[in-house]
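Good morning,

Attaching, inline, the backbone tokens for the sequence recovery test we're adding to the shared suite. The designed sequence is right after.
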């Protein structure tokens, strides 16, 4: 590991490995990345230990593929900029694919995947199961794609959040993923970050230009939360039977530099709730709910009237959709019905965004609010 250089490929034999993988100031190139992967994809190596499974500090053009990390008490994987704050030597162009990270914590703020100040990264086809803090915690990260992941809460774990995007994070897309019992807030757009931890510096938002699209949420307390966030798009998702609320809008920082939480789009989603949910969206003080846009969502709510009470009036809302959600053990929910409007709703109607190539720059478009 100390002798890796651009183009090095390390294939790890099956087996149980104690300890972890630690790299600092190690850099591949776009044409010759450094790759750590299973020698046998069908029998991946398993790493376990008391600390962290992977620690990458100020690294770039690195791919981890088909590895398992379990039982760590701090973090499963921790990727950081080593305090370089968006300088060229900071961590960037990282790919994590087909990883399984499980049994992290179980209590406290211990994350399955923690990333601080990482730019141009991809997390795809990974499984996160059982954690204390967040399954994925992003602090000051930019230009990132999280796709086709399974984020599964487990009994006996604190499970605070599924994905948390905060600390100055911008231009992040979460798509085509499945959340089951993923904590108090399954996706947390924004947060409450100590000012010294913002990357590259404090602006007027915790998170901005964040898109959550084509995902499926099942169970858990609250599915989507906007916290001191700006310019976000939540589109073509299925929100199925949250236990408390669908969404939460809050301003959890009193620093005057932050704009009131607002300017979010909630569009073309299919929302199914039962009588346990009496308030669909909770709105806290100091926010700007009037700047949100609700458009073209379908609402199926047991034990209530047809038109839901939302933070702002909705355009083209659908309140009479004839649809059934079929769920199976371990399977993704499927919507069944003959209503033509179903074709334009939820994850089944979403076309995923595709990056140009591995290790290319991820230039995600900014979120632009539509006219009401």
């Amino acid at each position: 590991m100390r002798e890796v250089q651009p183009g090095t490929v390390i294939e790890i034999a099956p087996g149980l490995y104690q300890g972890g993988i630690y790299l600092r100031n190690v850099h591949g190139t776009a044409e010759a990345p450094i790759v750590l992967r299973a020698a046998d994809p069908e029998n991946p190596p398993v790493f376990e230990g008391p600390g962290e499974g992977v620690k990458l500090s100020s690294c770039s053009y690195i791919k981890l593929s088909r590895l398992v990390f379990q039982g760590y008490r701090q973090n499963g994987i921790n990727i950081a900029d080593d305090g370089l704050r968006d300088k060229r030597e900071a961590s960037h162009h990282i790919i994590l694919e087909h990883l399984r990270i499980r049994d992290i914590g179980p209590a406290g703020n211990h994350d399955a995947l923690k990333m601080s100040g990482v730019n141009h990264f991809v997390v795809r086809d990974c499984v996160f199961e059982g954690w204390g803090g967040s399954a994925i915690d992003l602090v000051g990260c930019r230009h990132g794609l999280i796709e086709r992941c399974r984020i599964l809460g487990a009994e006996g774990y604190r499970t605070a959040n599924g994905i948390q995007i905060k600390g100055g994070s911008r231009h992040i897309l979460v798509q085509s993923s499945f959340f089951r019992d993923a904590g108090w807030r399954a996706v947390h757009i924004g947060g409450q970050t100590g000012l010294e931890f913002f990357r590259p510096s404090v602006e007027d938002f915790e998170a901005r230009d964040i898109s959550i699209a084509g995902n499926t949420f099942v169970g858990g307390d609250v599915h989507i939360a906007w916290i001191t966030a700006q310019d976000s798009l939540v589109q073509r998702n299925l929100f199925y039977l949250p236990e408390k609320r669908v969404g939460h809008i809050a301003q959890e920082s009193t620093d005057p530099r932050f704009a009131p939480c607002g300017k979010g789009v909630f569009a073309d989603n299919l929302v199914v709730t039962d009588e346990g949910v009496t308030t669909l969206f909770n709105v806290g003080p100091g926010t700007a709910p009037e700047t949100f846009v609700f458009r073209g969502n379908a609402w199926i709510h047991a034990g209530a009237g047809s038109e839901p009470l939302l933070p702002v009036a909705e355009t083209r809302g659908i309140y009479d959709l004839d649809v059934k959600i079929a769920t199976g053990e371990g399977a993704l929910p499927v919507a069944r019905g003959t209503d033509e409007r179903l074709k334009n709703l939820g994850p089944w109607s979403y076309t995923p965004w595709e990056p140009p190539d591995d290790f290319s720059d991820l230039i995600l478009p900014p979120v632009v609010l539509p006219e009401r």
